[in-house]
Design goal:
The structure is a homodimer of 361-residue chains. With 361 residues, chain A is an alpha/beta fold. Chain A has helices at residues 25-31, 45-56, 76-88, 103-115, 129-135, 173-190, 192-206, 210-230, 245-255, 262-279, 285-297, 309-317, 346-357; strands at 2-6, 13-18, 36-42, 61-67, 96-101, 121-126, 140-145, 148-155, 160-164, 329-334, 337-341.
Chain lengths: 361, 361
């Protein structure tokens, strides 16, 4: 078992990473000391892992909520269902919500934990690559609104993250590939050496070789831990983790949530960010090709839907990352070094949008 | 204008208290620096004060949401309406929610501000005595659930509180009296001298004499400021502010939210807490009579509805303040000194409940 610590003073917490942690009563006892536990999972993950998790939590009162699968259920209503279940079970302030599943389950369960009695403990047990390397770590929770993704939410740090890397074996290959987009993101914004490691070990990751998976999950969590510790509430450096996300949100919103996987949209978005960085003279053409090649080898799409630049810009303007009407984009000063830009030249942005989204509808 | 500061490090904020602050552009400019403002009010308060507030906020983009009046609308759905309005107005992370009204408006608007894009600025403009002395200060926000009051919520500190004491002139006398229950609470748990001042100045307060009102609002805010600064998230001392609230919640829940005003239920609850403290030998019979007399002179009810002790206990057990199945009560070690008790003898509690709620249904 490997361990990464998110250093947030009194709210610091461990990320436990390794194969078979779902059956590791000792690890679970450390992560979930509460007596009353509400496990939130979904209809896909539940049948695979819920029994094992509940067995691992023996000695506690464990209640469960089974959510429907999919991003379109990441709503205020679904969070309300979890809250209803907690009230029905008469859970108190010392209860703990455990999220067993991917990013959607973690986001909505974490938001319910943040809101129940103004905040109860919360533990993430991520079962997708995306959740293990990204969404389970850092305390962002929330739900979507018809007007935009994650518009409703809270910062609510988990008290532990338990990443059983064996659970990735049940992941559909499309979701594994989508998770790799976020893995590649860490290399692009923060660690050129890790980017090189990924280029050399992509096949091993896709084959889920245990050592490769453990290294990748650990390295991503280490990078995220350092960034979150420096900027918990995303006033500055944390925004780097949004590389590709503003473009990606436009893709997801235009297609309707759930058509594109989040990681797929982020992958195309990162390519667009690289392209825009080239427009600004920060990356060379060879750098952009290196990004495109890695995304391609990971089996990720590289073309945005032809929604037109104007519509894309409109959707991007609704993104949370817009401040005072100005779109802030994460770009690349070079490979391995992200930079937040609040004053990207409009002409360069327009050209990038047109070349990827098409020029009109 | 008087000023009390809530000292919470980076989240410190001022409470501005005085007559006519709604027309004081300078005070409002200090409290609300944001460019985009969402004013939340209700159908009773809005017609009285909204125009003046909007005029005072000139130069900004101001949108408004008008909620129906009453505790029964303090729901997740109502919070959702505010969130919908903010999305529709395309407000960003730098927006500010301003709550113009009493405790219900402040609680639900504050919760919406806490959730919108994981938290935006929030300013309280309380127009009831209860809100000016209690609910607007300290960062507790939330909504009710059919299973219990304030079961859903967040700690989200305002960036300022603007208490125009003249607005109390439009308050129905029943609400003024209910607000006095919370004023009396501060004397009982924390300040015997203030309790004495209240006994001497109750008539002046009921007549809304400006100097008396300003002194009472200021002193309550000072006491609350000290307690909140020491214990923002209610792990300890802050629970003292719940004197009478656990009993009171049972009354409110049994009667259906809105039948009893919160302050009325708290008033009876404080009398029960005093009575129980006498059972434990902490107060004398004369002390309890002093509490009863002051509540009576404030025009507050002193009898609980006859729901029976068993039902009352059941409702109290659903209160948020229950930890690990044990009811924690705020009692009085003496007048002017509250104490949180997690191990109140069951027999004394039963007797107190029976004598106030009746022994059965």
């Amino acid at each position: 078992m490997q361990r990464v610590t998110i250093d947030l003073g009194a709210r610091s917490y461990p990320i436990l990473i390794g194969p078979g942690l779902l059956d590791d009563g000792q690890a679970l006892a450390e992560a979930v000391p509460a007596r009353d536990v509400m496990v939130v999972t979904n209809e896909i993950v539940g049948p695979l892992y819920l029994d094992r998790l509940v067995r691992g939590l023996q000695g506690r009162r464990v209640e469960t909520v089974l959510l429907p699968d999919g991003e379109r259920h990441k709503t205020l209503e679904t969070a309300g269902r979890i809250l209803d279940a907690m009230v029905a079970a008469r859970m108190n302030r010392d209860a703990c919500v455990v999220a067993l599943g991917g990013g959607v389950v973690g986001d909505v369960a974490g938001f319910a934990a943040a809101c129940y009695q103004r905040g109860v403990d919360f533990v993430q047990v991520p079962t997708t690559l995306l959740a293990q390397v990204d969404s389970s770590v850092g305390g962002k929770t929330g739900v979507n609104h018809p007007g935009g993704k994650n518009l409703i939410g809270a910062f609510h740090q988990p008290r532990a993250v338990v990443s059983d890397t064996e659970t990735l074996r049940s992941l559909p290959v499309r979701e594994l590939r989508a998770g790799l987009a976020e893995v590649i993101k860490y290399g692009l914004v923060a660690d050129l050496a890790f980017l090189g490691w990924l280029e050399s070990n992509l096949a091993a990751l896709l084959a889920l070789e245990p050592a490769a998976v453990a290294h990748a999950v650990r390295r991503c969590c280490e990078i995220k831990a350092a960034i979150v510790a420096a900027d918990e509430r995303e006033h500055g450096a944390r925004a780097l983790l949004n590389l590709g996300h503003t473009f990606g949100h436009a893709i997801e919103a235009a297609a309707g949530y759930g058509e594109w996987l989040h990681g797929e949209a982020v992958g195309v978005g990162m390519l667009m960010a690289a392209d825009l960085s080239r427009h600004l003279g920060w990356l060379g053409a060879a750098d952009v090709e290196r990004v495109r090649d890695l995304l391609h080898r990971a089996g990720l799409p590289s073309s945005a839907p032809p929604i037109g630049a104007a519509r894309a810009l409109e959707l991007m303007a609704m993104d949370k990352k817009v401040l005072a009407g100005r779109i802030r984009l994460v770009l690349l000063a070079r490979l391995g070094e992200g930079v937040v830009s609040g004053d990207c030249p409009a002409q360069a942005l327009r050209e990038t949008l047109s070349s990827h989204f098409g020029s009109g509808t």
